[in-house]
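Field: COMPLEX_INPUT
Field: COMPONENT_COUNT = two
Field: RESIDUE_TOTAL = 260
Field: MODE = joint
Values follow.
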Amino acid sequence: MVRHNRIVLEMESIPENVGVARLMVAMLAAQADFTVAEVDEVKLAVSEAVTNAVVHGYNSQPGHTIRVEASLEEDTLRVVVIDYGRGIEDIALAMQPAVSSDPERMGLGFCFMQTHMDTLHVESAPGKGTRVEMTKRKGMERVPSTSGN
Amino acid sequence: MSMEHQLFGDSLVVRLSGELDLVAAAHFKELVDDYLDWGKIRHLYVNLEKVTFLDSSFLGALLGRYRRISQIGGQVGLINPPGSLRPTLELSGVFQLMAEYPSEREALSAG
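Field: COMPLEX_OUTPUT
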């Protein structure tokens, strides 16, 4: 079992890369013996964060960079998803369920991140980008905590 | 992800497998909207039996099709969603909008 590891991925802002990020983080969680159910939860949270970067950060435009940093420290997996796109004006509002700037979407992205990870921290500046940091400890009864600034 | 579909009268059955995210959402939307634009279908049944993962992008596409089909008086049904997807589906509230069927046959005979 792996106790310390770190992988950084920089990728193009295209929908096909959401699955790449999901796979990378899932493999890291599996190295640390996260359960299948825990890995599924991590995959969902990563999928939501990277999708937000593609769809909202960059308005679904290719040619931009999304950075995913995933690290393992003992029992804790930390995932950071960064885009350098348009940013979020009001983080608290964006994190409410059913708030989405796109009618095709359900505004569930942050809700899934909050539900499935132990911590979620979002930093964003309009015009500069968004940084989402999430952690999950394995074998934990989840107590969701969130913050934003 | 793979997607196949079959028409039964005015009911479209879409069989999905693998991981359903932003990529699958776009394909699914395009397929179903094409049938809807041509007025060929009234009901949609989505077979989730072989799906291993889905996220809010796909749920959003599903809900968008539900809205269109509701407007023409049709119904959307989910066929055999695996237990591993149940928490995500429940959190999204789709079970309050869409009926669930254990098989395609039962979905089609109910519609």
